[in-house]
């Protein structure tokens, strides 16, 4: 990592205040500024109040010429402010330290929720003392400005203007809820050059579903919902412009290396660094087999599987040979990009080594994906013979030993009905309870609308090859989905880029009608699809399908933004079938005829997959809030853990270890559908972090509160018109808020169950109408 710059190196600067919460936004701002204006000779100054060392390191790796300047936070404690509940209560003022930066002829400040889409170097040569874009709403004839972008010269950094700002801030003689913007507006009183809105196009200036003007140079995501936190309904097309710069660090460095080779990087030290670090093999800190493996794992974690392959292959060619660990790692990467023959060859080289068990497991997984079940069973048995306790080998063997991928799915059948194929994620034994129930729910709703006598199961993670196509073509149609299949990393493949492992050629050979049923766009904030394979596959699937139903409107907006305009409107709304289970007569889920019992169990579900994305660095604080919630309901209700997976049980262990609080656990993944249906139906309330810890109890008539750590939970609540039933996991007073919501439900159970019933009925009507139109064509 380069040494941070300590003083000005140019007489012009771009300046941003950055903290750890907004760091994801800053990374995209930095990447977009660098790639759109690479040849601009100007410092990039990071004002901060104490960034995490990891964030400093990452920022320096992306832009070696960054200059870090710590703000004088104490100064702004003296300011008179508005509501203390606002996160920006104090930090919004820290950008005012830009007026204390010495040595610059011109300064341009940028908010970290901006993305630069075009050249902005002309802002550095305006030749006026102060310029900004007027506030979009209520600008008072232009007197009020938007402080997201400010341009000013050195007449504003001699101390006089900073003193003026301090006087106004301390007196409170400004629009308090506008924070720094209010102080600057009061100080200037309209005396500034009004820049065109293209330099600070705020999100709300575009209608929902629209795009900003083509000439927009800077897009500003004002408001509560940021692109890196899941975004906001109606703005997917704008957010797509942000996400095009939310590329992997490796891809960014490679792009900068190309610019540097063309002489387009202004700073010579940065250019040298980019040339050294932007190639296939990283710089010296990751050279050597161990470093390359570590970097390859990081690329795979970021979803850049093709980048991992390129990195590993490059090193292998450079050294001429690889050891066993390297061969197995490369085999894993090959499987992730659908180079199955290469994956098998590499894994086989390790069969005679001390890692033979791992090699057999790798070969078993590859064999299962390509539907070689005999090979999968043989290699998984060999792995277990060497390591009898190897859990993953047991799972692969059980998967390969099934007579059909959907052998455990139980659903109502209509003997007089049609035969359908169903491509879904059929989970392993003791797998996620929501995914266990989901395929059955899809089938129950389908049979309710149009009778189905039998089903042909297709596992989405297996290669949809010619034999699979031929089998499906013998049925009346193919339904794909029931879950968050638009996800790059659960079962990566290079054929489609999402969970259905479907090559384009197989899609072309399909002759029966195709429908996507309640599929979800399941990326966490910070995740992305690398390259164009997903977009290309998505386009071909939507072109081919007779029906495309996505399970929430948030997913619809994300997917429509990725499609050509002529295909976007083919994507429609089909709620997750678990949300209407209780309304399906003659099934195991049907609502009881008479149920007016008072209930005293509150179920709590906490998910731990992708914990870094769910909790960031705040798990200890989250756990303390959950403890406060559990203790707050003592004597009011019995709180129990609803564990959808084995890791979900961890919350009970952590609560006892860290806070001495004991909570009982019901392991839903072990209990079977009949028992879990009873438990969820008889609960007073379910407080859940998993999507199906909300949708399943809701579908059975039970009130819910969602712990929002993934946008899909908010999408569902907005779809049913109940956003107030969700609380973000980072909520400062999470425990108290959960106690408040839970107590309200416990005190008036009949009313809340009635509200669930009304919302569920609306989803039922939508589901039946949408499915009937497609199924009537079969």
From TrEMBL:
Polysaccharide pyruvyl transferase domain sequence ranges: 477-709
Stated name of the protein: Glycosyltransferase
Signal peptide range: none
InterPro entries named among the record's database cross-references: Glyco_trans_8, GNT1/Glycosyltrans_8, Nucleotide-diphossugar_trans, Polysacch_pyruvyl_Trfase, TPR-like_helical_dom_sf
Gene3D superfamilies tied to this protein: Spore Coat Polysaccharide Biosynthesis Protein SpsA, Chain A, Tetratricopeptide repeat domain
A Pfam family of this chain: Glyco_transf_8
Originating organism: Cellulomonas edaphi
